């Protein structure tokens, strides 16, 4: 691959996350109607931060019987907050982007608590 094409692709790849975050911030700052899907966002946040890590642990540890280190990594990855990818897809397809953006915001804030608790539990169990 020519050096100029490689440089262009590196710059383009490096700009994707900041552009997604700026777009998300602008969307969150936009004025909306009163019925803004906050309850749906809370449900999605709870599913993302509690149900998904628990399901990941069950699948990884019980169904596939993976090594403990791999199970721990999988659970930690599953417990991370919602990223900007779902927002970009929702905005692209014009489907509930406000719910997605609120879910990202709520899951990021709540993950400060849930990830800390998860790491504390893992540390106490010698993981």
TrEMBL record:
Keyword Cytoplasm among UniProt keywords: no
Keywords: Cell membrane, Membrane, Transmembrane, Transmembrane helix, Transport
Subcellular location: Cell membrane
Coiled-coil positions: none
GO BP field: transmembrane transport
Keyword Cell membrane applies: yes
Membrane topology note: Multi-pass membrane protein
Pfam family for this entry, one: Mem_trans
Family that this chain belongs to: Belongs to the auxin efflux carrier (TC 2.A.69) family.
Name of the protein described by the UniProt record: Transporter YfdV
């Amino acid at each position: 691959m020519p050096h100029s094409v490689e440089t262009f692709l590196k710059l383009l790849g490096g700009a994707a996350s900041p552009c997604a975050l700026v777009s998300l911030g602008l969307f969150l700052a936009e004025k909306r109607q009163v019925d803004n899907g906050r309850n749906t966002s809370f449900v999605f946040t709870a599913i993302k931060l509690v149900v998904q890590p628990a399901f990941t642990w069950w699948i990884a540890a019980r169904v596939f019987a993976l090594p403990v280190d791999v199970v721990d990594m999988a659970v930690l990855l599953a417990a991370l907050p919602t990223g900007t990818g779902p927002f970009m897809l929702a905005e692209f397809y014009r489907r509930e982007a406000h719910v997605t953006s609120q879910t990202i915001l709520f899951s990021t804030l709540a993950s400060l608590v849930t990830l800390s608790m998860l790491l504390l539990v893992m540390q106490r169990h010698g993981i």
